[in-house]
Amino acid sequence: MPRDVRILLLGDPSVGKTSLIMALVTEEFPDFVPSRAEEITIPAEVTPEHVPTHIVDYSAAEQDDAALRAEITKSNVICVVYSVDKRESVDNITSYWLPLIRSVGPQKPIILVGNKVDLEESLATPSVTEAVLPIMDEFLEVETCVECSAKTLMNISEVFYFAQKAVLHPSAPLYSAVDKQLNPDCVAALTRVFTICDSDKDGALSDHELNDFQCRCFNAPLVPSALEEVKETVRRSHEDGVTDQGLTLSGFLYLHLVFIQRGRHETTWTVLRRFGYDDSLQMQSEYLEPGLSIPGGCTLELSGMGLQFLRDLFHQHDMDLDGCLSFPEQQRMFELCPHLMWDASKLMYSVNCSSQGYPTLDGFLSYWVIQAMKDHRSLFHFLAYNGYIHGDSDNQLSAVRTQARKPDEQSVYHCALVGSNAAAKANFMHQFVNPAYVASHTDQSDYACRSETIGKAVKYLVLHDTALEGRAEPPYHAAVVLVDPTSTPSIEDAIDAQEQLGSTTPVLLVGIPAPPGHATGEAVPRHNLQIKHRFVPGNAQNSQIFQSLARLAHNPHMSASRRDSSSSWASLSLKAALVVGVPLVLGFAVYRYRSSS
User: Fold this and answer.
1) Three-state secondary structure readout of 356-401
2) Residue 438's pLDDT is what?
3) Of all helices (H) and strands (E), which one includes residue 327?
4) By the 8 A CB rule, do 465 and 424 touch?
5) Cβ 227 vs Cβ 213: under 8 Å
6) Is the dihedral of CA 517, 523, 526, 531 positive or negative?
7) H helical segments located in 488-557
8) Cα 150 from Cα 441, distance rounded (Å)
9) Within 10 A of 385 (CB to CB), how many other CB atoms are there?
10) What is the pLDDT of residues 345-385, one digit of tens each?
């Protein structure tokens, strides 16, 4: 919506343009009328729409054609004034003024203003009024016609109210004056609003849903009698507009058609702007992406309100109640978005899915947990398209929270997955989210997420498959290092990984694959390296690894693999031992475990 309104008054000499402006400002008819009034600015607080309004006069005696065209260009709306006692001033509307305005540039809303209705002679000239009405049919930019009197102050405020309204609540984007129907873009926008408000997805707005809609758009519920009156208005004139379930989509559209045809454009615009539309019926960029600043050292995660909105959205679209979203259900959920906002064929590689690859509730929430962390713009767009509004913020900012690195207060933990065996990492990632699925190394995602319960709190683990090139950025809450204890290069890689992760990142060492006959935690004879867990594709006990990772991220001080600064030289000594054959491995392991305790 425009931040201010600029109204230009045009018309033949002596029709009363300047008198209208002065009567509005002084609230009395002026004794002396100059040839042209200075530009007037009316503060926002005294205008009906609470928008600053500039009123500009025109005088042919003081301004040339270039100045006139410049003022037309700068204006938002133009009042073409005629005198009801001068038929010539009416004829000049179509022969001169409206063609001139059209020739200057983009179409602007026009208000026809008939002044001097106080003159007795005007009562004898009804043909003047009759001559004005066809103009509105020929020139569709003419929004309305108002008759007034600067001398008696009749309808003076209304003239400028309608001019302001024509800018702030234009009819052209909403309604075709030729077809007498809503424009296609308006229908599409109102259909989205209806779909969002139809929370039970039964194709009708119940009384409860209508009241929620009313409160959301107008901050007040409808009293029962008014609600019935609205539905009765639709019943009388529109077949199938109301059913036993409530107001249908066709009834909802008809209701707005009636509002517009009765000149109540502001009602429809209030609804559309509440749901993010600009004056061209496109989604506002501020609505899609409200300003967000993430302080250094903080991460972004879904808030309780954001998670609850997404849960509700999932249940609304899980039409068959099978606990997952089939592809048709996904398509229906994304019908309010310009495109499908994920690759449905690859979801099972990053979040929990059914055997058919359909996201479960945990998988659905996990996907958006990942997006909040790595691409919050995508999350904000999805929430906006689906009509998220919650709390005083009135935008998506209440759906997220920035969280400092305090593991016991966070609900999302960012964990690294490190290892040189690509196939093992792929299997680990997929069984992290879908335990029954065994992947090939070609089926993989850089990120995977699942939930774990710690105490009574649900936490989300985001696992990032990374090569750790250079120091780890951003810092991880914990890391899983996959190591083949029978391979010297694998052990060397594990030591390098711990060095890059730094002494503040707790590490969970996981063996892959464990040699037959060696139980978890046993020293591997070759290097005496203690392995806390052993990952075996398809093994149900792998869940213990994921639970241990969650506990490690939540309480890193309990980690046996958390190293102090003196561990640096120890790991270097181990690498040297591996090269020259000196048996220092056992001593390193004992030192590392002892120093952490």
Assistant:
1) CCCEEHHHHHHHHHHHHHHCHHHHHHHHHHCCCCCCCCCCHHHHEE
2) 60
3) helix 327-333
4) no
5) no
6) positive
7) 488-501, 542-554
8) 82
9) 21
10) 889 989 999 989 999 999 999 999 999 999 999 999 999 99
Contact (Cβ atoms closer than 8 angstroms) between residue 300 and residue 380: no
Q: What is the pLDDT of residue 527?
A: 53
3-state helix, strand, coil in the chain (%, to 5): 45, 15, 40
Q: What is the pLDDT of residue 201?
A: 92
Distance CA 498, CA 273 (A): 52
Q: At what angle do helices 156-168 and 265-274 cross, to 10 degrees?
A: 40
The C-alpha angle 562, 564, 566, rounded to 5 degrees, equals: 135
Instruction: Report how far Cα 448 is from the mean position of its chain's Cα atoms.
Output: 24
Q: Would you state the structure tokens that stand for residue 149, as one six-digit string? A: 């009197």
Alpha-carbon gap, residue 119 to 34, rounded angstroms: 21
CA dist 272 and 259 (Å) reads: 13
Q: Look at residue 445 in the predicted model and tell me its pLDDT.
A: 83
Residue-level pLDDT at 471: 55
**How far is 436 from 143, CA to CA, in rounded Å?**
65
What pLDDT does residue 560 have? 46
User: Which residues, listed in sequence order, are joined to residue 403 by a DSSP beta bridge?
Assistant: 299
Q: Are the beta carbons of 357 and 347 closer than 8 angstroms?
A: yes
Q: Largest Cα–Cα distance in the chain?
A: 118
Cα(483)–Cα(512) distance, integer angstroms: 6
Check the CA dihedral 20-24-25-31 and report its sign. Answer: positive
Q: What is the pTM of this model?
A: 0.81
- Alpha carbons 267 and 260: distance in angstroms, whole number: 8
Of 303, 330, 302, nearest to 316 by C-alpha is: 330
Q: What local confidence, expressed as pLDDT, does residue 572 receive?
A: 36
Q: What is the pLDDT of residue 125?
A: 59
Q: Which residues contact 453 (CB under 8 A, 6 or more apart)?
A: 459
Structure-block tokens of residue 78: 């133009």
Q: What radius of gyration, in Å, describes the C-alpha atoms of the chain?
A: 35
Using alpha carbons, list the distances in angstroms from residue 182 to 74, 166, 190, 372, 381. Answer: 29, 17, 10, 38, 27
pLDDT in the model for residue 385: 95
CA 341 distance to own-chain centroid: 13
Q: Give every strand in the sheet of 246-248, ordered side by side.
A: 204-205, 246-248, 242-243
Beta bridge partners of residue 452, listed in sequence order:
459
CB atoms inside a 10 Å sphere around CB 92: 17
Helix, strand or coil, per DSSP, at residue 433: helix
- Please identify every stretch of the chain with a pLDDT value under 50, giving residue numbers as ranges: 124, 441, 472, 515-526, 560-597
Q: Which amino acid, residue 87?
A: R
Average pLDDT taken over every residue of the chain: 85
CB 260 within 8 A of CB 268: yes
Q: Are strands 142-147 and 5-11 parallel, antiparallel or unpaired?
A: unpaired
Task: Return the half-sphere exposure (C-beta side, CA atoms, 13 A cut-off) of residue 325.
Answer: 28
pLDDT in tens, 545-584: 999 999 999 988 765 444 443 333 333 334 433 343 433 3
